[in-house]
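REQUEST ID: PR-0412
SUBMITTED BY: lab tech R.K.
PRIORITY: routine
TASK: structure prediction, single protein chain
INPUT:
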Amino acid sequence: MYRLPQSLRGEFRKPFGPVLQSSELSATLRPGDNLVCIGDYVSMTAIGLGLKPKLIVVDYKTERHEVAEVLRSVVANYGKTVLRVPNPPATVTNELYAAIVQALRLTGSVRIEVEGEEDLAGLPVFAEAPEGTVVFYGMPQKGVVVVRVDAKMRSKARSLLERMKAA
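STATUS: complete
OUTPUT:
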């Protein structure tokens, strides 16, 4: 289990990539890109744009409030495979990490439903996704952060996870 200590919280206040608006998201993708969406609103936005994420990670909350029924219905019907895992706030459980690894290896689209909070799910995705995978995650009141997984991002994510494990 990885826990986010107070001392590392500042590392997550800055986005890990450019912050874009919904209308700019489609242009960031190349044909054949694997897309991962972290968060309910981001996932709904991508699906609404006609994008086909490989993986969405949702908790049926937005900014810690239950999502509207229309949003829930869009994300709750996505994914060929559904995995459900516990994950308390400010943590990455072993179950969430394992589900992400499994989802990235499965064929077809996958929805991971988190009981708790999915805010830190990007870390195991950055650490484990194939090179070139595009990750969208939300930055409240700002837009959608876009990260293309590469060796530098993988290294940063693994370093943060190690520091969280040690905390």
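NOTES: Residues 84 and 122 are 17 Å apart (CA to CA).
REVIEWED BY: pending
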